[in-house]
Amino acid sequence: MLLATGCSTNNGNQESATPSVSITEQSTAKEKVGYSLGFMMAEGNKEAVQDLDLDTFEQGFRDGYEGEESALTQEQMEEVLTTYQKEQEEKFVADMQNKAEENKTKGAAFLAENAKKEGVKETDSGLQYKVLTVGTGKSPKATDVVEVNYEGKLIDGTVFDSSYERGEPIEFPLNQVIAGWTEGLQLMKEGGKYEFYIPADIAYGEAGNSGIEPNSTLIFTVELLKVK
């Protein structure tokens, strides 16, 4: 009811929708500024408010910009936005919990089947690995810096990170990455290439990471280029 009030005129009649405006390179600077500001505001907030009512947003924007009296008091607007934010946060937490349980079940099933495949070995931590190329150089310690090429995938085959795609290897201290990497790379020798199947509890766990949902089992193909 509160939001609906925001799209009404003072006499209670619904305003008609504003006609769409065609923006081109030949549009005036004023038109381009207006369009650019509106587009960037929307693009920057669409993830935060995915179910935004564009009609009431436009009315509120116009009223605020043109100095009209707001349809809601300041206290009402703050309460509406606070309540909305709280509801969205609760929904996000519930969604993440559901995804975490689902991914945990899928990951366990994947690892159970994967363990039966030829050449796959498993350590006490649950880390599974397969030797693709046996290296001939030295093996790293957890305190060493390593140079590697790698590709990281989810169990559905989605690639979420790859030094191959970036066109250059990466260096990092081996004790500053996920536990599955710290353990797994110490099994390798320079020049080796392994495939690792890493359970969530020695990957990113329930927290997940950018592009990685909570409790995701990960697959990494790793080439150990150099131990430094």
Automatic annotation (TrEMBL):
Belongs to the FKBP-type PPIase family. Residues 1-25 are annotated as: Disordered. It catalyses: [protein]-peptidylproline (omega=180) = [protein]-peptidylproline (omega=0). This is Peptidyl-prolyl cis-trans isomerase. InterPro entries: INFPOTNTIATR, PPIase_dom_sf, PPIase_FKBP_dom, PPIase_FKBP_N, PPIase_FKBP_N_sf. Keywords: Isomerase, Rotamase, Signal. Residues 143-228 form the PPIase FKBP-type domain. SUPFAM superfamilies: FKBP-like. Its EC number is 5.2.1.8. One of its GO terms (molecular function) is peptidyl-prolyl cis-trans isomerase activity.
